[in-house]
Give the backbone structure.
Amino acid sequence: MHRFLLFIVFFATLSFAQAEKQKLKVGIRTNYPPYEFTSNERIIGFNIDILHQLSDLFSYDLKFVKGDKETLYQMLDSGQIDFISFCFQSQENKAAYNLSIPYNMVSFGIYIPYQSSIKNPEDIMPYKVSLQNELLYEMMGNNKKFAGHLVLRRSQNQCLQDVINGDADAAIISSLSGKYLIERNNYKMIKVPPINFKNLQYSFAFSKTNDSLLVQFNEGLNILRETGTYNRIYQKWFGEVHPNQITEKKPIVYWPYYVLALIIAVLLFLLINQRRKYLDLKQMKSKEIDIRHNAERTLYDYQLLVEGMVDTLPHLIIAQDENKKVKLVNNAFAQLIGQPKDEILNKKLDTNALPDKNLISLLEHKGGEQKNQNYQIKLVDTNSRMRTFDISKRKIKKATNKETINFLVGIDITEREQKDEELKKEKALLTSLINSIPDLIFYKDRTLKYVGANNAFKKFNGFKSEKDFIGKSDATLFDKKKAKDFKRTDQQILNTKERLELSVWETDNDGNRVLYDTLKVPIVDQNGELLGIVGISRDITQQADIQRQLQKAKTKAEDSDKLKTIFLTNLSHEIRTPLNSIIGFSDLLTDPDLTDDQREEFTELINKSGASLLALVDDIMDLSKIEANQIQINKNKFNINQVLIDLHASIEENRDAVHKHAVSLEYYIPGNEDEALYFNHDDFRIKQVLSNLIKNALKYTSKGEVKFGYRFTENEIVFFVKDTGLGISEEDKKHIFENYNSGKSIEQFGGSGLGLSISKKLVDILGGKIAFTTDELKGSEFFFSFPLKDHSTSQPVPSTELAETYDWSDIQILVAEDEQNNFFFIKEALKKTGAKIIWAEDGLRAVEEVESNPKIDLVLMDIKMPNLDGYEATKQIKQIRKDLPIIAQTAYAMSDEKDLSLQAGCDEYLTKPIRPKKLLRKINKLL
Ligand code: ADP
């Protein structure tokens, strides 16, 4: 009956076993009670029960392969079996195999003869000891005190027999095996002192490649422990239960089985449910194992990944434990110090071999726990290249134990540093460049806040430093109107992304008005994204001024061009009129029927026309000299009063009688006119200006008077010419001093329009001022003045007795003149004096004449002559006869000809055309 019930239980259990079973071969030792051994041809033992349970759990089809230790390990190595059941946890085994978590422990005891005095493990040192366990043998052998006394036996029983036979003083074998063997073989001579000599843990051993089985077995062992199965098996083999009870057949008490069978029958369904739950749990566990397994794999892969990554990183990475042993290092660090990675790992770094001493200090880890240290350091690498690193150090505690690991990560910033340096240089260059530009340069971001500007901009706005404007908008920096204007144009650029140019008047920091030409340009990045705007303002005040002046000059030039055309028309008229009368009357003079009066009248008319033509030529010459800046001022002391008297006389002489009758000409001299008033200035030019003004006054006055003279103000001498003529219109007033400019009166009176402009220019050159007042129809007054410095009234007037007739009958005068007509004229003029006139046709002849004729009293020397000119002839004559007076005849009233002739040695000069009276006076003066 009880057998039947047991069968039900067995059958029920079997029915839940999984159909597919994994076939596994396990290597077990032939005879190792109570762990694994054969009894009544059945393989039993603690290890075998554990294996059966695991087999049930994971549905293994287990096959036991028996053998000795070496054979089994060889079979495992060659893959003939899947694992070994009995493998001690030693460093060597761990390195060679995948060991499951230890699933049992073997404790070793000391077995000695009854009479032995050994009480402690140390007592066996000098004695001979038999043992069977290789690991123990090896461990004890490593201890010098035991070495030499140990004997390794193949079986534990042999060890005990060694003690009985006296071959050994003690045996050290598994406590449980010893107990079992003594009892089984009835070894009465052996005693077991209560000494637990050594404990060794053992595990299942799998080949290194078999990870999955390892994980499953570990999990299975945990399940067995958790479900109490392990304890039950342990209890069975090592507890109160004697190993003999397992194999021995003892009379069975059946009634408890009946009760049990009943309970089992009642609880069968519950059991089935439990079984199902259990299977579910198993499945879950299996999944969990898979997950864990995957997790472990992932972890392993991750570890590989991390190692790979660390190695490929260009940064220096090193981790050291508290004893400075290197726990992690990457290629970059190994290369820096020039040592292979494998030689560094798990060792202390050889500081003597480091290429740079700085590295030693770098590897020191100071500071508190977990404290970060960041700094920069310069290191020389194995190629003697100086490199800069950003170092970050950190101390961390391992999670598994309290060990501290010092981590160091170094980023090579050499290139970045160099680039930074280059960038800094570039920036400095750019800054000094834009600061050297006198234009105002500024840049703003997209929100129109200032980002930067050059020195010119700062100076213009009175900003002392960048802080004054950077990050600020126009609204906070400038007045409302200005800020609004700026914003409007800036906004336009932001909207259109197009440049803008504008000219605006601004007031600088010192209150000066400046015209700025501002160019505003959008700043865009390479993707066309708008970043801000840049503005360049150029001061164009001067440029604009120049432009204005140029425009003015252009208009003036155009005006003067027009004037020139008018002038040329006038000039042609002014030349033709006297020329016509000269030619006409000259023709008439040839008429033999002319009366003497007619002849004199015609000659007079020809003279007048010649004089006006000459005056015109003089004016043109003067103007061109003035414009070519060739007018020289020749100052000398002269008597103003005499100049006025002479001028009056010479003008009056040339006026026609009708005009003289209608208009009186008077001069005005302040004070006594017989007293001389000397003035140090250019008398020739002053006379010229006065003469121009007087002639104009007479020209534009048809009745009344023309008065001229001078007067003094506090510090000036003022010459004036006043008339009662037609005056000057408002329109004409603006232009009469300009070149070629005639008033409206030209149509009636003719004229070249040169007189006043020459007069003004001459007065300017002489350092004076010229102006006029006028009242239309009532008359005008022109006056010019000079500062009073060099005049006095103290000199007596030298009397100028003018003889109307001269008797020079004993006088010889040499006339050097290439023009025959001119010679005849002079000869005629001197006819009445009775002087003997000698003619020399050029300079050379004149010199010869003086040489050959010592009676010559005076020479009239023309300047422009062929062969030898007047200057040279004068010089040579003066060398022959130093005292011989020479009067030069110059072509035009040019002051430089006068100077040159005087320099050559002439005593006086006469300007052409020569007036007979003047000629006589000059000759008289010198004779
Ligand atoms: P011109 O007399 O040859 O025309 P000027 O340069 O001497 O040239 O004078 C310029 C103009 O000034 C004259 O055309 C005339 O209209 C005016 N003018 C000069 N002097 C007088 C004056 N005394 N009275 C009236 N108008 C004068």
DSSP finds 32 helices and 35 strands in the chain. The first strand starts at residue 22 and ends at 29.
